[in-house]
Amino acid sequence: MSAYTDHVDAFALLKICAELCIYSKTHSRFSNAHNGLDAFAPLKICAELCIYSKTHSRFSNAHNGLDAFALLKICAELCIYSKTHSRFSNAHNGLDAFAPLKICAFGAHCIIKHDSVLRRNIRPQEIFGVSNPGCGEMELSMSRLMIEGGSVLSGTVSIHGAKNSALPILAATILAHGPSEIHNCPFLSDVAASVRILRYLGCDVYRADSSVSVDSRNIDRSDVPDSLMREMRSSIVFLGAIAARTGEAHMSFPGGCELGQRPIDLHLWGLRQLGMEIVEEGGKIICKTNGRLRGSTIPLSFPSVGATENILLAAATADGTTIIHNAAREPEIEDLCNYLNSCGARISGAGESTITVEGIETLVGCHHSVIPDRIETVTYMAAAAVTGGTLMLRNICPAHISTVIPIFEEAGCRITLGERELLIRAQTRPQRVRSIRTMPYPGFPTDAQAPIMAMTCITEGTSVFVESIFENRFKHVGELMRLGANIRIEGRMAVVEGVDRLSGAEVECTDLRGGAALVIAGLAAEGMTEVTELRHIDRGYERLEKNLQAAGAVIRRLE
Questions:
Q1: I need a surface site. Which of 19, 159, 331, 419 has the fewest CB within 10 A?
Q2: Under a CB-based contact definition with an 8 Å cutoff, are residues 201 and 242 in contact?
Q3: Which member of 257, 337, 343, 509 is catalytic?
Q4: In this predicted model, what pLDDT tens digit does every residue of 318-352 receive, in sequence order?
Q5: Does the active-site annotation cover 257?
Q6: pTM given for the model
């Protein structure tokens, strides 16, 4: 144990090992040498957990920096994640009673297998097979942001590639016979989940900086495991691509942010119009094409982005012409069509309400650069506005945020646009915005509702938000109120009465954009704000805290 003497005091280690003994008396096989764990494995795991617990206040006390129940608390949190990882669960309720021991045993196995880790101070995430959220393995929820409000933002931020564009494009690479190079691809946990799905299907996937290379020539599967489907809602976009490429697809219903029902009935209805046979049973979706799909005229009852994407992917290699009426017009749809056309597809009308697809038999790989993320752009604009700051945002597309810019101007911000950049100068305190109603593009984007609501929490006057896309997209309101915001919910309407100041508190991310809203509010709050459940933010924002730090925010991430 000498490897840890510089990092863990003996008293702390003894206390945490005592807690382990409570487990081992009941479940003696935990330290049984016959199962492949040496006698010191529990100590090695505990030592790493001690290192971790010292940097997280909820696992420590003021006396010696380590709570005696640290191990139990950490294991309890790990259990939450074990539900989606079969090696830690059972078939009855998704969580094995022995999950904490299994996780610790798994970590000990990693230590024994890779003894070199005992000679360096590694992060606990590495022991449990966890890497950066953007790199693709299981993630822990112990990360948190500590924000000291009151700083005025000033500087330059470069906007990353759009998550909502990168994900369907990565799914579309399944259709290409040959390698595709996707550039400007952000480092996000959702992107990592897509990469895991592609690799599971048999694709060769490599990442170098912001470029992802996908070669689908060796694809040999048509199913997606439930554990992968649950990681993100947009995983359903793989349905059309897999079925069109392999002739069948087997998957469960998707996971992701709980913003409402988000029914996929429109996806399935549209794919059935192309001749796909679809059976839904026991939470599973089973699809067969019986040869090439057939082009059809498909009038959508609502301009669903996901349904439009799935139909486009299935129709690109269908026999005949497909016409989509009332198609989604989002920039991300246009970007997907541009990628498919670069692969040889024949798609016209992207960005309009009617899209025409002339199916061809085979697509080939290509190079493509993902468009800038318009929601990330709006998020940093809201951060500048709430702090009375000035930010230069580079690598943006002004046309994609044309319906949002007037909102910031109404709030008193001065906006200067360039060809690929935007300068926002905010006044000391933003003014109210009278009314915002979320609508399909080119209307006000639902994803921008939460970040801008955070900005309006400290305005002079009343702002009204009407959410017409999702029925459950005000979950962040309760957390904003913990910071002192004055918000009233009436059905799908939120009425925000601006307050003079917000006060720091511990808040929890409820979803991706709601998490961004909490960070924005924390920048304006007096005192310290602690934001937890960062797995939501990591789904859609790359290096959020680093970019804010560079612009002058006092914010740090604790792992």
A1: 419
A2: yes
A3: 257
A4: 999 999 999 999 999 999 999 999 999 999 999 99
A5: yes
A6: 0.76
